[in-house]
Amino acid sequence: MMDTGTGRLRRVLSRLTSTTGELEAAELREQTVGRGCTAVADLVPRARCTVSGTLRSVTLRPRAGVPALVADLYDGTGTLALVWLGRRRIPGITPGRTMLATGRVTVEDGGLAMFNPRYELLPSRPE
Fold this sequence. Notes:
Blueprint: H1 4-17, H2 20-34, E1 48-60, E2 68-74, E3 79-85, E4 98-108, E5 111-115, E6 118-121
Parallel strand pairs: 3-5
Antiparallel strand pairs: 1-2, 1-4, 2-3, 4-5, 4-6
C-alpha cells in the first residue's frame, strides 16, 4: 500500500517535470470530463455527441465555391474540425476561445469533423 505522502510527492514531481503543453492538455481533459462531454479520442463517426475544448485555429476554407469557416477544437486528447458552411466569420469564434459543440461526427480528409454544430462559447480561462 502506498503512503499518501509518497503519492503526493510523485504528483508534485510529475507537475514539475511536465511541459506546459502536457499540463494544459491534462487540464483540458479534466474540464472535458467535468462538463460531461465526450473526449475527442473517444469519438465515433456518425455518432451525435457534445465536445468541449479550446480553439487552436480558425480559418476560412472555401468548399466548391461556398465559404466555410473551420475551427480546430483541441480537448487534450485530440483535435476535431468544426466546420460552418456558408459562413465567413462568427463573432466569438476566435483562436484561444473555450467552447462546447454539439453535432454529428463525420470523417473528413482523414480526420474527424463536425459540420454546422450547435455551440456555446464559454468564459475564457483566467491567466
